[in-house]
Design goal:
The complex is a heterodimer of chains A (456) and B (66). Chain A has 456 residues and is mainly α. Chain A is 75% helix and 0% strand. Chain A has a single domain, classed as Orthogonal Bundle (Hydantoin permease). Chain A contains 20 helices and no strands. The termini of chain A are far apart. In chain A, 56% of the residues are buried. The N terminus of chain A is likely disordered. With 66 residues, chain B is mainly alpha-helical. Chain B has one domain. A two-stranded antiparallel ribbon of chain B has the order 1-2. In chain B, strand 1 and strand 2 form a beta hairpin. Classes of the chains: A mainly alpha (456), B mainly alpha (66). Chains A and B meet through helix 18 and helix 20 of A and helix 2 and helix 3 of B.
Chain lengths: 456, 66
């Protein structure tokens, strides 16, 4: 590797070998050209060059977060809309920190192990905070995907029950997962483009539904700018699940390692920041808003009893669109939600396990393939009926492990031994991270208080 | 701020600050529950929020600004 190449890649991560250095050079040149363009062309350019942010959005917009948004819309109307942008805004401070570590110092877990303790890095972050939850969360994703697929196919004139359609979901997501990081097939680029297309489908599909049902703009602005928290345990769990979806260790970890897998180094931090805003932040906020609006405007306004799960909510909502085309579009957009999450969870699970045990990632190895497909055992969920509150409770529980990772990341980006002159030098960035830390602390504290019955 | 980077026992000042912040967060939330749900005095909540704000403002001082 030449000196110039070494400057581009501050730290070597094996999955980045799939990206030729010439491509990284070309991306930097394109980035400079994009920065000179008018506002909207600039945003388009950032989206085109980005990638890890879209993988993050595809993962974050999953069964848990979308179900929480649906229920929030039905039960609380527009009142909890602020949770989406607030949790993402504070989460971005942490993601920017992991990006700083990726571009200036290298892999997160070895840094945590070196400067803190292997219990913090390998055990609580990589294994307990990332790999194990990833394997659990896919159950909810497969269950939702199977049910949605089953609900979609009658619109095309045939039935495809979830007991069988899981094979299509499993094959598609496994194929995407195993393609990631491959040198011989532009795998990383294909997975990133798949995520971009799926997110575009979500935004367009849900926006189409919003156009059909309309928006109460007064309530929209009130819901976004007047923070409101429901009273009672279940309501708080719902808000926590929505918040934890955007501000959690898996999001930070995934963005960090997909940035490293993209070969991003010192000079890519600016591109990474744009990617986290336009690839991850905006799609997450927009999709959450759209989902809350459509359910607040329809099932929420009707004051009907709340259906038990996301599939029933979707089934109750689809006919309200008034056309077969609208319902198909809605189901396709909704199906993209669990499918992209499964791919993200598979990838992050493999990375988490490899980092926990200090193994060198090799996407062609049997070990990598097995680790990447552990979460796909979630297909078993198509045979069981999972109550809505279980999905939300798992998400809320994982908020307990977020503290260790959040504290550790905050300490690392302020550690001169780890980052030398690249330590955070901006007071407001640190303050943003502290707000994120207070949020994950609060999520863990409320979760414990709720379980021990302090709310009464 | 040197106090944040120096070690006191096993941990740095910044990590001790994070522990204090966690406790302050718990006090604030416990106080908020007592005040808003059970109608008791808001003092515990105010103390918790006050310590949280103070600790956050101190911990946010970057190493380079010392």
């Amino acid at each position: 590797m030449s000196n110039d190449n070494q400057n581009i890649r501050a730290a070597h991560y094996p999955l980045a070998d799939a990206i030729p250095t010439q491509q990284l050079d070309a991306e930097l040149a394109q980035l400079e050209a994009v920065q000179q363009k008018p506002f909207f062309s600039r945003i388009y350019g950032y989206m085109k060059l980005g990638g890890p942010g879209f993988i993050g959005a595809g993962f974050t917009l999953g069964a848990g977060s979308i179900t929480s948004a649906m229920i929030s819309g039905v039960v609380y109307g527009y009142k909890t809309m602020w949770v989406a942008w607030f949790s993402m805004a504070v989460g971005l401070f942490m993601i920017a920190a992991t990006l700083r570590l990726a571009t200036k110092a290298g892999q997160l877990v070895p840094l945590q192990n070196k400067y803190h303790h292997f219990l913090v890095g390998s055990v609580l972050t990589a294994l307990g905070g990332v790999a194990i939850p990833s394997a659990i969360w896919t159950w909810g994703q497969f269950s939702l995907a199977g049910n949605l697929f089953e609900s979609l196919t009658p619109y095309f004139g045939f039935n495809f029950p979830r007991q069988y359609n899981w094979t299509v979901i499993w094959a598609t997501t496994s194929w995407m997962t195993l393609m990631y990081g491959r040198k011989d097939s532009k795998g990383t680029q294909i997975v990133e483009n798949f995520m971009k297309a799926a997110i575009a489908l979500m935004v367009i599909g849900f926006a189409f539904s919003v156009v059909k049902v309309g928006v109460n703009w007064g309530e929209f602005f009130k819901g976004n700018f007047i923070p409101w928290i429901p009273s009672g345990g279940e309501g708080l769990d719902l808000v926590l699940a929505s918040g934890a979806a955007a501000c959690g260790v898996v999001d930070w970890f995934l963005f960090h390692y997909t940035s490293l897998s993209r070969g991003w180094g010192s000079r890519h931090e600016g591109l990474g920041r744009m990617d986290m805003i336009f690839g991850l932040g905006l799609p997450f906020i927009i999709v959450n808003w759209l989902v809350i609006i459509v359910f607040a405007q329809t099932l929420g306004a009707s004051h009907a009893p709340v259906p038990e799960n996301a599939t029933e909510l979707a089934a109750a909502f689809a006919p309200l669109l008034g056309s077969k085309f609208g319902a198909i579009f809605f189901y396709l957009a909704f199906l993209a939600v669990p499918v992209t999450s499964i791919v993200g969870l598979n990838i992050v699970c493999a990375i988490g396990i490899f980092e926990a045990f200090g193994w060198k990632p090799d996407v062609k190895s049997l070990r990598w393939k097995l680790c990447a497909l552990i979460p796909s055992t979630g297909f078993l969920a198509v045979w069981t009926s999972r109550p809505l509150w279980l999905v939300i409770a798992v998400t809320a529980f994982v908020s307990l492990t977020n503290n260790f990772a959040a504290w550790s990341i905050f300490l690392l980006v302020n550690n001169r031994a780890a980052l030398k002159n690249n330590v955070v030098q901006n007071y407001f960035w640190n303050l943003g991270m502290m707000i994120a830390i207070c949020s994950v602390n609060a999520a863990a504290i409320v979760y414990v208080f709720n379980r021990i019955g302090i709310f009464g | 701020m040197k106090i944040l980077e120096n070690k006191y026992g096993p941990f740095s000042g910044r990590l001790w600050g994070l522990f204090l912040n966690f406790v302050a967060n718990a006090v604030a939330i416990h106080g908020a529950i007592k005040f808003m749900i059970h109608g008791q005095s808001p003092i515990e909540m105010v103390v918790g929020i006050g310590i949280t704000i103070a600790v956050c403002m101190v911990l946010a001082v970057p190493d380079s600004l010392e």
